[in-house]
Design the sequence.
């Protein structure tokens, strides 16, 4: 199969490299010529474990290439994927579809081969596929084509594994020949028995939002249970295990923490709210989730302040982990941003360390002093707060950490350590829901 990816960002690049690894011939296209030059030199625009090696081996094998030229790239393709960004629109939180529609317009005049499938992989509100189809038909009325929805379910930091061993592949289209093309595109996974679920295009578009909103709800639910545990003297990890063992609930996404962040949950829950409002159908649970998660991030800053006795003016606080989760350098909507702001507002001096995110973080958090290691950050600090559960922080020498500090407060927002071991190292230890 010959495939073009329009957009070589996170989703386009990972998907393109994985499709090439299946044996398809793939070209990843991007408007950003500098990005394409770097990709040709095997320099990745994002940090994703294993991606550089996967890209290199497929480029070397001649199956994967990069280009800025849409016209040449789509020639002879069986499937052209739209994988451009759909950020939150400034002001109202709706998904900004300008990149998707611009890509559709470009494809409308670029595609000449009959029976090309245009696949929307970008996360787009229900009905976007209809609009993409209309745009292409208007410019190119003679062309036989189909617009298919095929949402991605990749987690940053685990994207290659998620692509190659998905729980399911969702394909939204009622056009039988287009379904056949998608069957062929995903055949290697299909043979591994990953279920290929065919739905209507609109159902497929909604599945993406419903999945992310449900996962965000699960996290927010357990976070609220954690707050309740603290008041009731219960342990949220036991509660998670106790409910998660029920197959109907499932044990995943029940880790209490500082609230969800990242490029997907915050943006997609907001966009779903907008869609629901536009159709005068309240989705009150998602509304509550969005609000609870927003409030939680600053509350986590206050939790650190409370652990220090309530007045942190002039105190040094060291944060470990700034990215919204481990194995990424992504700072988008990271809880650390609100936490830092709360601490700075209260007059604290904030130092931080992150294994991959400090360069990105420094752009957003210019007042934070970046350290070369966790121990360096902790030097003379009154408190250390663990914000993101990077592997590098899972086996810290707690005695050494404590010895470096001026104070003794350890706030563990990811429940990585056991209370007894932290206390044995001399810490005044605070965690979440325990
Ligand atoms: C999420 C979904 O998991 C993917 O399936 C989806 O494809 C992706 O969004 C997307 O729409 O593109 P991602 O944002 O990369 O993936 O990260 P997650 O691993 O889902 O974590 C999101 C946030 O939830 C993080 O801040 C994480 O720390 C938090 N989280 C997750 C918890 O606080 N507790 C949990 O139990 C799980």
Sequence:
């Amino acid at each position: 199969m010959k495939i073009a990816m329009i957009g070589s960002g996170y989703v386009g690049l990972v998907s393109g490299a994985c499709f090439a690894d299946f044996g398809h011939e793939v070209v990843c296209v991007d408007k950003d010529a500098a990005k394409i030059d770097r990709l040709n030199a095997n320099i990745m625009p994002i940090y994703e474990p294993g991606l550089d090696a996967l890209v290199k081996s497929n480029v070397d094998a001649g199956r994967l290439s990069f280009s800025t030229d849409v016209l040449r790239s789509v020639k002879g393709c069986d499937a052209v994927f739209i994988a451009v960004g759909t950020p939150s629109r400034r002001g109202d939180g709706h998904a900004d579809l300008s990149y998707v529609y611009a890509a559709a317009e470009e494809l409308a005049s670029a595609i000449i081969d009959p029976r090309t499938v245009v696949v929307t992989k970008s996360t787009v509100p229900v009905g976007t596929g209809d609009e993409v189809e209309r745009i292409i038909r208007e410019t190119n009325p003679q062309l036989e084509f189909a617009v298919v929805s095929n949402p991605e379910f990749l987690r940053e930091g685990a994207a290659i594994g998620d692509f190659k061993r998905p729980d399911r592949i969702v394909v939204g289209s009622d056009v039988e020949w287009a379904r056949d093309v998608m069957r062929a595109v995903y055949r290697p996974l299909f043979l591994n028995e990953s279920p290929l679920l065919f739905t209507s295009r609109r159902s497929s578009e909604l599945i993406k939002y419903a999945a992310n909103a449900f996962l965000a709800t699960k996290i927010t639910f357990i976070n609220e249970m954690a707050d309740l545990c603290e008041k009731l003297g219960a342990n949220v990890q036991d509660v998670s295990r106790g409910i998660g063992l029920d197959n109907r609930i499932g044990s995943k996404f029940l880790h209490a923490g500082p609230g969800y962040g990242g490029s997907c949950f915050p943006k997609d829950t907001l966009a779903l709210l907008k869609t629901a409002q536009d159709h005068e159908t309240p989705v009150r649970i998602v509304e509550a989730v969005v609000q609870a998660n927003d409030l939680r991030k600053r509350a986590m800053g206050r939790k650190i302040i409370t652990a220090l006795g309530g007045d942190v003016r002039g105190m040094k606080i060291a944060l470990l982990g700034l990215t919204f989760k481990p194995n990424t350098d992504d700072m988008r909507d990271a809880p650390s941003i609100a936490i830092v702001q709360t601490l700075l507002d209260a007059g604290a001096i904030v130092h931080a360390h992150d294994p991959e995110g400090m360069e990105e973080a420094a752009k957003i958090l210019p007042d934070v002093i970046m350290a070369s290691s966790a121990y360096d950050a902790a030097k003379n600090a009154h408190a250390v707060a663990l914000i993101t559960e990077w592997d590098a922080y899972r086996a810290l020498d707690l005695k050494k950490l404590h010895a470096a500090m001026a104070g003794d407060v350890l706030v563990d927002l990811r429940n990585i350590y056991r209370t007894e071991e932290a206390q044995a190292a001399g810490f005044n230890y605070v965690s979440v829901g325990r």
Q: What stands out?
A: The chain has 18 helices and 14 strands. The chain has a mean pLDDT of 96. The domain at 200-434 is CATH 3.40.50.720 (Rossmann fold). The longest strand covers residues 2-6.
